[in-house]
Amino acid sequence: MRRNSTLLIGLLVVGAVACGGSKSKTPESPAGGGETGETGGGAAETPPAPGEPVELAKNLQVLPKDTPLAQVKEIMKNGVAPSLGVECKFCHVENDFAADDNPKKNVARDMMRMVMEVNEKHFKGQWAVLCFTCHQGKEKPEVLK
Amino acid sequence: MLLLCALVALVLAGRASAQNKKMKLEVLPKTLSNKEVKNIMKGWAQSLGVKCDFCHDLLDFSKDTEHKTIARGMVKMVNDINTKHLAKYKVGVTCATCHRGNAEPVRPPGAPPLHPEEGGEEGAEHQHEQGAAPATPAQPGQPPAPAPAQPKKKP
After folding, report:
1. Chain A residues closer than 8 Å to B145 by CB
2. CA 20 to 30 Å from B86, out of A108, A116, B13, B41?
3. Chain A closest-CA separation from residue B14 CA (Å)
4. Rounded CA separation B89/B83 (Å)
């Protein structure tokens, strides 16, 4: 759980800054839906009113299971997707973001676990390695010798 | 004249002996020849856009330096990544995958720098090696990161 919390924090950092720092938010663009957020939808997220239940993302396997859907979407939309230069449907089934039918979603989960382990083991928990570090905005990292 | 010849022979023998001296390898296979190691090093240097002195004491290449220790850690990391995480996908990473000719891999636009208070790349590796807590000010030329978007060090 501690690892998962660390991952969430890191991904939030990445999600918030990786592209958020240089791109304006585009609420009209398709939302990421999270690791496996159950809905897609492009509507702008409005924070729940105090006392209102927070909607959690479904079918989370790497991110902490109690992660709010809005946070997962933020991570996906502003961190993961732009780092790979892809859109939601690259990993998600449209209209059922929680579904695992697209095999790329499990690849993405593996990559998240890899990044998490690398940062913990080799960078003392700092978010040194991000999706962008290798992908640089491309689906597959460029092969260089 | 004889003395001079003997002196030259002695110097040449000394140099040859130094060149054949087995390198101190801790991460690379000890079975590699010096020539093979040098070729590998040239590749690494090119991947990071650096020269030998980035990691080596030019007067004593076998001497351990801070950057050399970090480099060893990175080699272990690459091996970990390739064997534990990427083998099943039949792909692999190299130094160049992340470094792309830079001593420090490029961060995404707007991401907080890893080692801001050290004031640049030089201090960067030092800091991550020592596990110093990351700070948040933006790097020169980068937009400041949003306030909540700060890297957290694991407690």
Report:
1. 16-17, 21
2. B41
3. 36
4. 10
Of A33-42, A130-139, B40-49, minimum mean pLDDT range: A33-42
Residue B48, domain member (yes or no): yes
> Any idea where the domains of chain A sit in the sequence?
2-135
Instruction: Measure the CA–CA gap between A67 and A60, rounded to whole angstroms.
Output: 8
Could you give the ipTM of this predicted complex? 0.74
Q: How many domains does chain B have?
A: 1
Inter-chain touch B128–A107, beta carbons under 8 Å: no
Q: What's the rounded Cα separation, in Å, for the pair B67 and B64? A: 8
Chain A interface includes B134 (CB < 8 A): yes
Cβ within 8 Å, pair A19-B153: no
Distance (Å) of CA B15 to CA A123, B18, B19: 40, 5, 6
CATH number at residue B33: 1.10.468.10
Is the distance from CB of A98 to CB of A58 less than 8 angstroms?
A: yes
Residue partners of B42: CB distance under 8 A and separation at least 6? none
Closest CA to A40 of A85, A5, A83, A91: A91
- What would the DSSP string read from start to end of B66-134? HHHHHHHHHHHHHHHIIIIIIGGGT----HHHHHTT-SSPPPPTTPPPS-GGGTSHHHHHHHHHHTPPP
Spell out which residues of chain B touch residue A118, defining contact as CB-CB under 8 Å: 77, 80-81
Chain B interface includes A20 (CB < 8 A): yes
Q: B126 in a domain, yes or no?
A: no
Name the DSSP letter for residue B53. G
Q: Tell whether A12 is within 8 A of chain B (Cβ).
A: yes
Residue B51, domain extent: 29-104
pTM, two decimal places: 0.71
Stretches in chain B below the pLDDT threshold 70: 1-20, 117-155
